[in-house]
Amino acid sequence: LSLQAYERRFPTCPLIPMFVASDTVSEYKSEDGAIHVIERRCKLDIDAPRLLKKIAGVDYVYFVQKNSLNRRERTLHIEAYNETFSNRVIINEHCSYTVHPDNEDWTCFEQSASLDIKSFFGFESTVEKIAMKQYTSNIKKGKEIIEYYLKQLEEEGITFVPRWTPPVACKLESSTSHTRRPVSPAINVPDSATKEGLNNKEILNTSSSPSELTAGTPDDKLDADYIKRYLGDLTPIQESCLIRLRQWLQETHKGKIPKDEHILRFLRARDFNIDKAREILCQSLTWRKQHQVDYILDTWNPPQVLQDYYAGGWHHHDKDGRPLYVLRLGQMDTKGLVRALGEEALLRYVLSINEEGLRRCEENTKVFGRPISSWTCLVDLEGLNMRHLWRPGVKALLRIIEVVEANYPETLGRLLILRAPRVFPVLWTLVSPFIDDNTRKKFLIYAGNDYQGPGGLLDYIDKEIIPDFLGGECMCEVPEGGLVPKSLYRTAEELENEDIKLWTETIYQSASVFKGAPHEVLIQIVDASSVITWDFDVCKGDIVFNIFHSKRAPQPPKKDSLGAHSITSPGGNNVQLIDKVWQLGRDYSMVESPLICKEGESVQGSHVTRWPGFYILQWKFHSMPACAATNLPRVDDVLASLQVSSHKCKVMYYTEVIGSEDFRGSMTSLESSHSGFSQLSAATTSSSQSHSSSMISR
């Protein structure tokens, strides 16, 4: 039915004013009626400045659109490209309607486009903005147009379209029969399925009622009992979002795949907008990998100062089965802890608490036989005073909140704030802007002894486990806090070195890359056919990654001193190995084509060495190319270059050499896989480069 609704857009569509007319160029129908391919020439009135149209010498532009309908496979593929100015601008667009792999009553819609502007009378930037604006507008109206024609069909009494079946002759020849689920009569396009962006995906729900989808079928990937036991109530759309995001991670993510419960937290944090959830989830996975957060409970022991003076700990569970964490913030010397430990140790301790919370949620899910994905936090503010508003302490608190919000969404089920004093509104004013709106709704604040009355603690926690310091009968083993002795305070230099040590306890190294000063790593290879592997994240700026080979060893590495550029991030460094007198092709050679890596991308790859000797991995600053037509930089390029502070980039990297017999992967080429966690490029393209048949896939 969705496909028939789409066909009503032609020869013109009143909901798309720019779509003036269309003519059929060619048409093909297979004998059995399963295949229908039609090619049209479409006339468009682009919303562009009058001056630009006058310079270009056209009032309308023409596109060629090819629609390929396969009734047997129940797919519709649409390809479109520009006919006008095709020698100056190349536009390609692809759309597809397919049956959802997990529920045949759903229609999946995918849309993507590419734009390549070679030259356009000096108005390249303007044309690009017009194209982006027009494309975004079309995406927003896509769902509205389908709904319009579905309603039109319904008014005409067409509520379903029988599925295509082969002619009688074909049926007799077929030796197998295919069972088909009945097509449901009602059509509903849910709002929650709408997406915006350059890669647009929609799910059109064609079930007659939500109950039909909730019941599930044997073909569903997620069993109904599994959902009820471990995930909780999910609508069909929410279940589909979970399946699609998990499948995308399995296909693109190189590291550990999080559990469904954890993926679901990120989806809920973004109201099941799959693109937004994917972005924050992948950023979090990169962060976890860089700092080895998955191993923090097994490898990191909190300093004794924290064990003695951090007034917080786990204490049974609330009435809903959520793990209960008690924090006596009013009794805690935040200034003393910061002075004795520094921000990084406090942050790491809070991360270990959150990791323990995730583990306890899994345990309670097994104990209570129902999904428990969050915990309750009880904060006692008795004793809170102006000392707690010490500026470095508040700064550390805000940073901790920021990190936790980004990487542990939807883990706080409820926050009970007790005995809030008069100074609390001041602290709340400072902290609340950094807390997500959904999280803020879970806060319950009690002043004085209000928590003992109706609507207080007893509504959320069993009487038997209310801590003794709150008037209960249960002994609470949470440390009482108190002032940290000044003899334990550390100097600023000691704290800085300790912070560096904490965050460099990782397999990754940090490096800074400057314009004119690349960072280089030397790897000596004794046995040919060894495999050099790498894994790096571009944290800031755009870089070019190169691999070189030399028969002789370079001079001992020298750290670059760039005056104003010598200040780098903690643990960062800049090492140059290739001597300026060396000549490419004589003293050393390039073994693979350069790889341009954008800010936010995560790159993993390998290279099979052909000769023994010295290999140099190089990360070099990527300069924006000047406009080819004029040899002068464009305004956009100049503005982009100004945004790169001090021409500085930063990468986090890890390299390893593996014997060919131990390597599990391609033994024929370099393979660089871009995860693109911050940009989330959904499409995967590849191009063959270099004389050694290397494949670079992004």
TrEMBL record:
<dbReference type="GO" id="GO:0039552">
    <property type="term" value="F:RIG-I binding"/>
</dbReference>
<dbReference type="GO" id="GO:0005794">
    <property type="term" value="C:Golgi apparatus"/>
</dbReference>
<dbReference type="Pfam" id="PF04707">
    <property type="entry name" value="PRELI"/>
</dbReference>
<dbReference type="InterPro" id="IPR006797">
    <property type="entry name" value="PRELI/MSF1_dom"/>
</dbReference>
<feature type="domain" description="GOLD">
    <location>
        <begin position="504"/>
        <end position="657"/>
    </location>
</feature>
<dbReference type="InterPro" id="IPR036598">
    <property type="entry name" value="GOLD_dom_sf"/>
</dbReference>
<dbReference type="InterPro" id="IPR036273">
    <property type="entry name" value="CRAL/TRIO_N_dom_sf"/>
</dbReference>
<dbReference type="InterPro" id="IPR036865">
    <property type="entry name" value="CRAL-TRIO_dom_sf"/>
</dbReference>
<dbReference type="GO" id="GO:0039536">
    <property type="term" value="P:negative regulation of RIG-I signaling pathway"/>
</dbReference>
<dbReference type="InterPro" id="IPR009038">
    <property type="entry name" value="GOLD_dom"/>
</dbReference>
<dbReference type="GO" id="GO:0045087">
    <property type="term" value="P:innate immune response"/>
</dbReference>
<dbReference type="Pfam" id="PF00650">
    <property type="entry name" value="CRAL_TRIO"/>
</dbReference>
<keyword id="KW-0399">Innate immunity</keyword>
<comment type="function">
    <text>May play a role in innate immunity by inhibiting the antiviral RIG-I signaling pathway. In this pathway, functions as a negative regulator of RIGI, the cytoplasmic sensor of viral nucleic acids. Prevents the interaction of RIGI with MAVS/IPS1, an important step in signal propagation. May also regulate the SLC18A3 and SLC5A7 cholinergic transporters.</text>
</comment>
<keyword id="KW-0597">Phosphoprotein</keyword>
<comment type="subunit">
    <text>Interacts with RIGI (via tandem CARD domain); the interaction is direct. Interacts (via GOLD domain) with SLC18A3; the interaction is direct. Interacts with SLC5A7 (via GOLD domain); the interaction is direct.</text>
</comment>
<dbReference type="GO" id="GO:0005829">
    <property type="term" value="C:cytosol"/>
</dbReference>
<feature type="domain" description="PRELI/MSF1">
    <location>
        <begin position="1"/>
        <end position="158"/>
    </location>
</feature>
<dbReference type="InterPro" id="IPR001251">
    <property type="entry name" value="CRAL-TRIO_dom"/>
</dbReference>
<dbReference type="Pfam" id="PF03765">
    <property type="entry name" value="CRAL_TRIO_N"/>
</dbReference>
<keyword id="KW-0963">Cytoplasm</keyword>
<feature type="domain" description="CRAL-TRIO">
    <location>
        <begin position="302"/>
        <end position="478"/>
    </location>
</feature>
<keyword id="KW-0391">Immunity</keyword>
<dbReference type="InterPro" id="IPR051064">
    <property type="entry name" value="SEC14/CRAL-TRIO_domain"/>
</dbReference>
<dbReference type="InterPro" id="IPR011074">
    <property type="entry name" value="CRAL/TRIO_N_dom"/>
</dbReference>
<keyword id="KW-0333">Golgi apparatus</keyword>
<keyword id="KW-0734">Signal transduction inhibitor</keyword>
<protein>
    <recommendedName>
        <fullName>SEC14-like protein 1</fullName>
    </recommendedName>
</protein>
